[in-house]
Structure formats: C-alpha cells, structure tokens
Write a structure and sequence with these properties.
Elements (H helix, E strand, L loop, with lengths): L1 H37 L4 H37 L3 H28 L1 H5 L6 H33 L3 H24 L9 H25 L15 H36 L1 H17 L1 H19 L3 H36 L4 H34 L4 H25 L4 H8 L2 H4 L1 H10 L18
C-alpha cells in the first residue's frame, strides 16, 4: 500500500513536471536565441540587452512572487474545491500586477536612458539599451495579466494549457527575433531593438490567446470583475502570505541585479558579455530542478488543502530527492555544453578566459540554487510559509552577498573572476538554515478558511 502511495506521488509529480520542463525549456530558448542571434550583430548589442533585460528580470521576479502567492492560496483552495475563493485571489493578484505593469512600462517608455545609467556609464550601451527598453514597454503591460492568469491555471493543475500557450508564444518570439534582428522578409534590420519588438508582439499575441482560453474555460477565467470585489479575510491572507513571497522575490531579484551593477560598473565589457553566456548555460542547467520545484509546490499545496499533512510531508521528501538528482544532472549538462559554448561565443580572448572559469563555477552552483529554490519557493510556500524565506534571502543577499560583491570589486579590486566566484557563494551560505527549517516542519500548515463568505466579509 505504501509503495502504491509512493508511486502515485512520483506519478503526480512527473505529470505536473513534464509540461513545466517544456515551458521552462522554451522560455530559456528565447533568451538563448537573443544571445545567439545578437552574437552575429556585435558584443555591444549583447552587453546592452543583457543589462537592459535586468529590469525585466526584476519585474519577472516580482510577478513570480505574486504568482507564487496565487499558487499558495489557490492550490490549497482547489484541494478544498472552493472555486470562488480562487477567483477572488486572482482578482487581488491582478490589482498588484497591473499597477506594477503600468509603472514599469511608463518608466521604460519615458526615461529608458536614465534607467540604463544604473547599470553602466558606457554611452554606447546606454543608447542601445535605452532603445530596447522603449520598445519592450508594451510587453510589460501584457505581462502582468498573463502571469497571474497562468499562475492561477497552474495552481489547479492545468499545466498542459499553460505550456501550450507558452510553447506557441515562445516559438513566435524566436521567429520574430530572427525577422527583426536580421531584417528578414522585408522587415527592418533592428539589431537589439528587434529583440524588444519581437518580445512585445509575442506577448501581445499571448494575451489574446489567454483571453480566448479564458472565454472558453469552465473553471478559471481572467477575473477582471474580481479586481473590484472585496473579501477582507482573503485580502488579509494574501498580504500575510503572498506579500512576503512578493517581497522575497523582489528583494532577491533586485539583489541579484546588483551583481550586474558590479560587473557593469567595475569589471568591464568582456566580463559583461561572458556573463551573458554563463547565465545562458546556467539557465539550461537549472531547467529540470526548477521545474520539479514548481510542480512539487503545486502538488504539496493541493495535498495540504485536502488536510492530509502526513502525505504532504511524504510528497515533500520525494520532491527533495528529485531536486538533488536533477541538480546534479544540471551540473553535468553545463560541463558537457561548455566546449560548445566556448567555441560558439564570439568574445575576445580575455572574455573567453573568463567564460571558461564561469562555466565551471556554474556547474556546481546549480545544486545550491536547486535545493534552495525547491525548499523556499516550492515546499515552504506550499504550506503558506513565505515569511521565513523572505527573511532568509534578504539577510543572505543584502547582508552578505551584495556587500561582498561591491567590496571585492570596488574596494579590494580583486581580479574579475575572483569577484564572480565570491558572488556565487550566496546559495551555499544559507544551506544550514534552509535545511534546518525544512526538517523542523514548521512550514507544514493548512491555510484555508471555512468562514470566507460569512456576513460582512465580502
């Protein structure tokens, strides 16, 4: 009987994981296409887009936090079969995401060059990156709606639908990248700006497709009407549980972007370009383990919502075993891919020297990222425990990693590759506390309510 339960858990994890793997693979492929195609345009275009895209990365981390808050609550309420609560949570999330979308899009449209000066003093990179930001502003408007809706679909297990939407959109994005970067089929040859144009068009198409899926859906739709509905208990729960996740991902994303500030301001263009390829390889190496973390969080949340806490704990253990396995596989993938990446990268000899060592560092760095992401962003949040992860990541990044990066680069003026090595210690420093919190089982809680619709609550 126990063996059947174990097999059932693994089966459910893999059923959720496979579409997410495909989705993450396609997402990484888009970023890869940007770097690969811009490799033929010039190192300055690669560096400029790499820096300008950090704003999108930070925005994505915030949206990921909002989406995680949606998943935390909706997965458990889905286990409880309360669809009305799911729509109310989606409406709350849309209030936040749409507001942020408008703010970022406005900044990218109106003051893009000022935004670029945060990362680099190089006039050429500022000009190229500024044009990129201005043209990608439309994508930011679409993104806030898309990510909340897809997170809601994933929380109820409809990962196949979200993967199909992403597969079409990402494929279209890659095709349009080629069209606008190189000027194919009579289109203008736009270089770095072509990446932004392609992204904005594909995101607009994805939003239309989400609208079609929503109109035909029998369960979860884009809940614009719920944006204006009020439920004090759910709103309080969203702030209490989702807000730490949002702040966690925003804080971590902003701190991680500080690495780009360090590289751009102190380490030079060779290091900027090398970091673009190293990040690309790392993204491919983490696809499997991050997908398991996402799927595991959904599954554990649903089981907790059914009030089967012992089964949820058992499922979390299975997720951790798979995370370690796929983290090791990810490291091997980076090592195997390293010769091909080095051969392809159109970098200076100094840049290739940096990249060679950076790939080696990332081959083990993925394990640290895999374990922490699976626990903090997957398992802990499945039980509604997002506050602990926020504190842990904020202390680790802002009290240790970011100061260390600036001191080593600006004060001690260490060689660039040593600065990079020190920046890649952040995930391992917090391992003892993260693993200890997991073993304590303080994260294992049912956060659903039975009194959501009592008089005066909505």
């Amino acid at each position: 009987m126990r063996e059947q339960t174990t097999n059932n858990i693994y089966s459910r994890i893999f059923k959720l994981t496979l579409p997410i793997v495909l989705q993450n693979l396609l997402s990484t492929a888009v970023g890869s296409a940007d770097v690969v195609m811009l490799n033929f345009v010039g190192q300055a275009h690669i560096s400029a887009v790499s820096l300008a895209a950090k704003f999108g990365d930070i925005f994505f981390m915030i949206l990921y936090g909002i989406g995680t808050g949606v998943t935390m609550l909706c997965a458990q309420y889905y286990g409880k079969k309360d669809m009305r609560a799911i729509h109310l949570v989606e409406g709350i999330a849309l209030r936040f995401s749409m507001t942020l979308s408008v703010l970022l899009a406005s900044a990218a449209l109106l003051v893009p060059q000022q935004m670029m000066r945060i990362f680099t003093p190089d006039p050429e990179l500022i000009e190229i990156g500024g044009q990129y930001l201005r043209h990608i502003s439309i994508a930011y408007l679409c993104w806030g709606i898309i990510e909340v809706y897809l997170s809601t679909l994933r929380s109820i297990g409809r990962v196949t639908v979200t993967t199909a939407l992403n597969a079409f959109t990402f494929s279209l994005n890659i095709l349009l990248n080629a069209v606008f970067i190189f000027g194919l089929f009579g289109a203008p040859k736009l270089g770095a700006v072509g990446v932004a144009v392609a992204t904005s068009i594909s995101r607009g198409v994805e939003l239309v497709l989400c609208g079609i899926v929503s109109a035909k859906s029998r369960d979860v739709r884009i809940a614009f009407h719920c944006v204006f509905e009020r439920n004090r208990l759910l709103f309080r729960d969203f702030l209490k549980m989702a807000m730490p996740a949002i702040l966690n991902d925003a804080s971590w994303g902003l701190a991680f972007s500080m690495y780009s500030v360090v590289i751009g301001q102190f380490l030079g263009s060779d290091m900027i370009a090398a970091n673009s390829f190293a990040s690309l390889a790392r993204n491919f190496g983490t696809i499997l383990c991050f997908s398991v973390a996402s799927a595991g969080g959904i599954l554990v949340g649903q089981i907790i919502g059914e009030n089967r806490l012992e089964d949820a704990d058992n499922a979390a253990k299975k997720v951790m075993r798979l995370t370690v396995l796929f983290g090791a596989i990810g490291g091997v993938i980076i090592l195997v891919a390293s010769p091909f990446v080095l051969r392809f990268a159109d970098l200076s000899e100094t840049g290739k020297g940096y990249l060679r060592i950076m790939l080696l560092i990332n081959s083990y760095y993925v394990m640290g990222a895999a374990v922490n992401t699976s626990l903090i962003a997957g398992i802990f949040r499945a039980g509604g425990d997002s506050r602990w992860g926020f504190i842990c990541d904020t202390v680790d990044m802002w009290c240790y990693a970011v100061p260390l990066a600036f001191i080593s680069a600006a004060v001690l003026k260490l060689p660039p590759i040593w600065v990079y090595f020190l920046m890649c210690t952040d995930e391992f420093v917090k391992w003892p506390w993260v693993i200890s919190h997991y073993r304590s089982k303080k994260w294992l809680r049912n956060i659903t309510r039975n009194d959501l619709y009592a008089d005066g609550q909505s």
